[in-house]
Amino acid sequence: MENVALVGLPNSGKTTLFNALTGEQGKVGNYAGMTVAVKKGNFRTPHGRELELVDLPGCYSLSPRSKDERVTYDYLVNESGNSQIDLLLCVVDSSDLQRQLPLLSDIMALEIPCILILNKVDLLENSIQKTDIQGLSDRLGIPVIPINALKKSGILELKQAIRHPLPVAPNRPWRFSEVAQGQLQHLEQAFIKAGVKAPKLKSQLILGSRHYREMFLEDFPADIQKEAQDTIDQIKSEGLSAHDEWFQARQNWSADLVKHLKLSQATNKLSLTDKLDRWLLHPIVGSITLLAAMFILFFSLFTLASYPMGWIESLFGWLTQMVATFIPDGDMKDLLLDGVIAGIGGVLVFLPQIILLFILIGLFETSGYLARAAYLMDRMMGLVGLSGKSFVPLLSSYACAIPGIMATRTLTRAKERLLTILIAPWMSCSARLPVYILMIAVLWGDSASTAEKAWIMLSLYLIGTITAFVGAAILRKGMKLTRSKAFFLELPRYQAPDWRFSLRQGVQAGLNFVKAAGTIILSISIIIWFLQTYPKEVNLAKLNQDSVVASSIESLDELSPEQLSALQVEQSWLGRAGRFVEPVFEPLGYDWRITTAVLCSFSAREVFASVMGVLFQENGEDVENLSKRMQQATRLDGSQLFTKATSWSILIFYIYALQCFPTTVTVRKETNSWKIAAAQLVGMSIFAYVAAMLVYQILS
After folding, report:
1. What is the pLDDT of residues 353-368, one digit of tens each?
2. Quick one: which of 678, 681, 684 has its CA closest to 656?
């Protein structure tokens, strides 16, 4: 099967085109860093040829400055011989051609068949005539196809243009000055003679890019290194700068092409995007707008999701009644009621809010507003040694820390990337959402309005975010990380949000959540039910001496059914294990039941709600009123269990604890160090413990 690779600048529309061609559900966004790894899919031409399509991370040139750009460079240059490319599709944003086209000059130097794709043609200030497109194609020597990937216009024409064999661009599209051009050709011949891959590209990068020389020159054979250095010295002796000439030659070539298309890249008329940015990027107005946007997001989580949450609660209430009515008493009935329905129902009730969170984030992404949020955050993040670019991975971590950590590949400074990885898990991910919502209901119940709950939720997110920044400020001193002198970020045009993508993203997040509920959460719920059910006997002599119930009775016959059930659970295997570990968490205000839920949730944070459902919903009753049962829960001495101090202690613990082993594995992979991953896991757990303990001790 032939291999086709997509390459282009960040925000050029590569992944949108990938989805349009293959039908895959690739992650789409309009800020740099969305595509952080190679993505593959298949598609067919109108003539039935099946092709493999590869979506490469966005890059600004083939002189890589970040990890994701290095992924693209390695794949295109194919040093390992594992990525044979038959065709390159170079995607450029038609509304910003003069800045986008220099990458094409690097692509053409690879001497691989190539098609230039002019995406977003509907955004051009002036219309492009078909004769202009054909003239551009003739000048470049490669096919040029105008499309709109989002609206899927031009896709058929693109597929028809993929013919066999495709022509390779005949010459390097730009030239140095006469002296430097001669030296470039001399070096290129030396590369060809030495068998260096992609000699045309590497020779111009060695001469023109100081950064490329610093990264790759020592990887070449010694004689090639000497040849390259001699060539650079020869150009210098003529009073020329190869770097300046390389940059200027590419820019002049790009400007000539834009001029050929009769496009005006500058205009005195302010666009709608410019007018909006005068306010949305204002230090004060923009910050207030960002805060309001976050409040609206959380307000929507409580209002819009309340109806489907009610439907899910009613469904599980109906299931409870059916099981209680038609299944005879026994362990099977108890397993279904107290294990399966209570465990799964206690978690799936939060499914609408998970879906809605991802839909709203998707709307922010596709509208172009998230890039503005990153710009607004640059000043604040600069105080802790980070740049606004770090905001994108951190913002992604609000949905899930794993893609957020992977998105740090777009950061060019190694220390900034490491620091961003270390603090990313403190951004409250969607797995914490069930814990937050449950504990907010336990603390305030029906006494708080929807707006108040939204402010509380926003406060929880801000606590984690502010602590992350404070931690970054402390860590950067030890890392000797200084603030970046310059901050560059794509600011795409505002556009109507892509509802289709956002809905698809929300549904996919929901399916992943349901999958987790059907595997990890169900398994843990059944295990917890089994451990708290057996052994069923209550031994009065073996009761703990601190049990008020045990010290006040002489026979089990004196116990009420509720007291007997409570003592049976306490003497179960789960109760014994929880009581054994309880002293460790007692300073946080936790009894053995909360301790058990906390320990179980280290596999997945949302398991906390499931374990609470198993432990506090007797006989599967009132599955929709878990928070009310928790409010009524008492310790063995009759005192309230979930006091304000204990409840806040739980919230603080879950804000800070790194209870996600997949995240730890991802950190190890991205840093190539188990030491860093383990230190992060242990350090965040200790911090969470101490913070929760202080909150409990102060409030109580």
Report:
1. 788 888 888 888 788 8
2. 684
